[in-house]
Amino acid sequence: MTDKITWLFILLLALAVSACSQPKDPVFHDQFFAFGTLIDITLYGVEPGIAETISSQIEADFNALHTEWHAWQPGPILSLNEKLAQHRPATVKPGIIHLLAEANRLSLASKGLFNPVIGNLIELWGFHDNALPIGTLPDSAAIENLVAENPAVDDITIESDRVVTRNAVVAYDLGGFAKGLAIDRAIERLRDSGIEHAIINAGGDLRAIGQRGERPWRIGIRHPREPGILASIEIAGDDSVFTSGDYERFFEVDGKRYHHIIDPRSGYPASETTSVTVIHSDAATADAAATALFVAGPDHWQIAAKNMGIRFVMLIDSQGIIHMNPAMQSRIQLDPELDATVILGDPLQ
Ligand code: ADP
Ligand code: MG
């Protein structure tokens, strides 16, 4: 009997020792769908139970924000747009007012290249639908008419909880920066819970804080035309990396690509850019800036970056030429196999 107990004791001790010596994976992963894309959460060094809880809270937040900020499904933005289209003042709750004010501020900084009130143009192009239009171009006169009405955020006045417009063709579409703002909220939630090492990645657009143990986070940037990675960036601290590309949502008519980033000045998809990647501290600004610099194109991205306070930019133009500023070049590792011309611009400051 005593022998049995001794053996049992030795066995339990051996099990306990082996459990302790098994290194636990310090990286937690979770994925879910929101904002029409796969959201990927990576946490480092967080106890699994806590990681599970916080990850489901973030999922719930993303789903709530996606519904609340939706441009064409019933919700506060759609009701706001209906009122603005009738020249009627709209009363909006504080969370939404903050969102609109932030969108307006970024639009003014971009000198209207990021324009969150061109919802009517986006709708005309058929992008207000989960399915893409196949083989149909919008009526060119309808586009010209909308562009001539020049919907812009300075047509809009926000007074406490009221939104009024001088221009009935404005319609909010926050698709160009909502994902960024949602990622910022998620990072805030993580920090409030004491989590300091994490990546929130929404289909390749992400914000990373802290690092992966002893090493920085390593981020891949997708090639705009081929499967695989074009470049990688290391992050240790707090940075957002956002890419706007003509490959995210597009359709083709007669072999020509029509994508979802619209130049508000022409009413047509911005045609000289294939993709723009920016690095910036907060994700909302990075998201809006990637869209704005995409519209600015290979000849004007530097001035747009300066206007928006962006310090790291890589733009691939429609010829496949890579443009970047020296600070970006010192942070990015291009795939060594890549056969592309790189044009290094002047420093941005
Ligand atoms: P993605 O969301 O695919 O990463 P973007 O951040 O560039 O790409 O956002 C594109 C979306 O932004 C479009 O689907 C549309 O809703 C909206 N949008 C298109 N053109 C503009 C623009 N010039 N300014 C602001 N928003 C835009
Ligand atoms: Mg964007």
Task: Walk me through this protein's architecture.
The chain contains 10 helices and 17 strands. The chain is α+β, with helices and mostly antiparallel strands and 349 residues long. It has a 9-stranded mixed sheet. About 2% of the residues have low confidence. Magnesium ion binds next to helix 8.
Which helices and strands, and how do they pair?
Blueprint: H1 2-21, E1 27-34, E2 37-44, H2 48-68, H3 76-85, E3 90-91, H4 94-109, H5 119-124, H6 140-149, E4 156-159, E5 162-165, H7 178-192, E6 198-202, E7 205-210, E8 217-222, E9 229-235, E10 237-245, E11 250-253, E12 256-259, E13 273-280, H8 283-296, H9 301-308, E14 312-317, E15 322-324, H10 326-329, E16 332-334, E17 342-344
Helix pairs in contact: 2-7, 7-8, 8-9
Bound molecules: adenosine-5'-diphosphate and magnesium ion.
Helix content: 25-40%
Q: Unreliable stretches, pLDDT < 50, 5 or more residues?
A: 17-22
The number of distinct helices, counting runs of at least 4 residues, comes to: 10
Which kinds of small molecule does this entry bind, naming each only once? Answer: adenosine-5'-diphosphate, magnesium ion
- What's the CATH architecture of the domain at 79-175? Orthogonal Bundle
Largest sheet: 9 strands, mixed
Oligomeric organization of the protein chains: single chain
Task: Kindly estimate the percentage of residues that lie in beta strands according to DSSP.
Answer: 25-35%
N→C terminal distance: 80 Å
The shape, in one word, is globular
Order of helices and strands: HEEHHEHHHEEHEEEEEEEEHHEEHEE
From the alpha carbons, calculate the radius of gyration and give it in angstroms. Answer: 24 Å
Average pLDDT, all residues? 93
| Count of extended strands | 17
> If strands are numbered along the chain, what order do they take across the biggest sheet?
1-2-6-7-10-13-14-15-17
